[in-house]
Amino acid sequence: MQNVLAMMLQLVSNQTPRPISTSDPSIWHHIADALQQSLDRVLLLLVAILPGILAFSAALAVFTLIGMALSALLRRGLTVAKFDEHIAHGRGNVDWAPSTSPTALIARVSFWGCVLLGLIIGVSAFDASYATAAMLPNSLLPYLTHVVGAAILLIAGTLIARFLARSVLIGAVNEQLQYARFLSLGIKWLVLVLTAAMVLEHLQIGGNIVGLAFGILFGGIVLTLALAVGLGSRDLVSRSLESHVEHPSTTPPTASPDDSIRHF
Amino acid sequence: MVTADPNSGVTSPSAPPGNGLLVVFAAMTPEQLEGAFANLTASFPHEELIIASPDAILDAFATDAHPLFRIVPAPASHSAWNITAADFVSAYQLADKHKARAVLMLGPECGSLDSSSLRKLSDAVLGSADSIDLAVPCYELSPHAGLVNSAILYPLTRALFASSVRFPLAVDLGLSLRMAKRMADAALHFTAINQGETPLWPVNEATIAGFAIDQFNVGPSVQSAGPDLNTIFPLVIGPLFADINAKATFWQRFRPLPPVHNAVPMPLALIPDSATDIAPMLSAFRLAYTNLHEIWSLVLPPNSLLSLKRLTITDTPAFRISDSLWARIVYDFLLAYRLRTINRGHLLGALIPLYLAWVASHLNITASGSDSEEHIEAVAAAFETEKTYMVSRWRWPDRFNP
Asked: SS3 for chain A, per residue?
């Protein structure tokens, strides 16, 4: 037992740490090594994906230039061939707006077609380069397609929301509803909330929380609208009911002020 | 009267009976049909006529009343309030089939017209030497009736197509055979794409073709309760704007009003039954200014918007839309229709409150003692004056935006 204790004391006295000094060159050496390795890894990663990025950019740039040239060529050729006039003659001498003439449409479609082709080829080139490098996380490229899909959803949803909001606003104003703007805003936000939920779902962000939050928010908006319309038109409904109870279909409905007007 | 051709074996119609007039009835109720038939009988007491009607009831009805009239079936009309593209196509096909020399198209209320009016319309298009290709009626209406026509259809047609026809969308028309063919050709474009219910604009077509047009005073016309304004307004104004868009190369040149063949005295505006309350129309306009300002600002230039803003705070008795402002508003909407600045359905919907404001202004003017027809003529003159504005904006929509 005494021997054991003596050995332990000897070990402790031997393992007493030396004081760390910043002037010790070995520490800096380790740090420098670690940084060098990190930098090397980053550079390697960059080197691995750089050809892909370059290929993508080159494909996009080349096809954009081709699109511009093709568009200009088509525009000039169709103008010389009086394409618009031929089409207009066939459709009963339609006078095209400058931005919607067939020539402009064809030129625009050809340009954007080339840009789209460049994008597809660029992504393919990037994909090929990435597959060989295999240093990026495996889920990055598929996720990019989700992002593109989400962006399309967002744009479509915003356009639909604006269209429906305007339709409701104009219809409600022409029906002389005082809460036309409120109704229009309600429709707009309903569609936008729906779009946002779809986009998040598509991006796989939030999981069930998004669905739940969307349900609560959507239900809340509908309930708010229902309460607003119901409370706002309460007097109107009660007056209408009272008039039916007091004069049960014996008196004709009062003529509206502009009944004597014939618009057509 | 159909005879068989012995050589070809194909049936071909013989010479037309009587004066070669084909009368085409619109779809009518039995009461309207009775009135129309009575008017026709009074106008053509001793003549053979071919009458095309979608109502089978007319056949038995006419055989007893007027044996000289021959009833032939016609396709049912798409609309009761105007003549559609499909109606023009079927009218010409019937005229061609029965070798008619002219076509008289009659609307549901033709029974209420002067008894001589049908004769006037048909004689004009049946004349051999100095014939008219398009005979249009000129109705005598209350100042509270036909307001879309007074506000938009007539002034636009007069300013752009140099035609003084007071009712360009009349439902009673006399057409020569070549005019009927021209209309059928124009209508084929719409029927081919399954839009046979689109209204056509015979005055515009006749003007472009260089055909002779004349209008005839047909007296007062009974006005039945029309369809809802919000529904029908885009259905009329949209096709008119589209037609103007299609014929831009024609109307951009200056053309003076041609002298009329048969000067028609201006129809006397009938005295309205009662004063109309314009407050609901003004409140609709004010509500629209609050809510649709954003949409209007996409279509109208700042000057017009400023004028509209002033109008929203004007008292009801003093409410007046100047003729030039109204002309510019209509022209700006026409331009926006062409450029598709916003959805065309939205655009036409946004024009309705402005039209109601014009109606309120017009009723205010007539209530103050001014003659309704004089005001409508002043509006049409303003459209003619502002045509240069329209042409400038049409040609350079981005550069010329006051």
From this structure: CHHHHHHHHHHHHHCCCCCCCCCCHHHHHHHHHHHHHHHHHHHHHHHHHHHHHHHHHHHHHHHHHHHHHHHHHHHHHHHHCCHHHHHHHHCCCCCCCHHHCHHHHHHHHHHHHHHHHHHHHHHHHHHHHHHHHCCCCCCHHHHHHHHHHHHHHHHHHHHHHHHHHHHHHHHHHHCCCCCHHHHHHHHHHHHHHHHHHHHHHHCCCCCHHHHHHHHHHHHHHHHHHHHHHHHHCHHHHHHHHHHHHHCCCCCCCCCCCCCCCECC
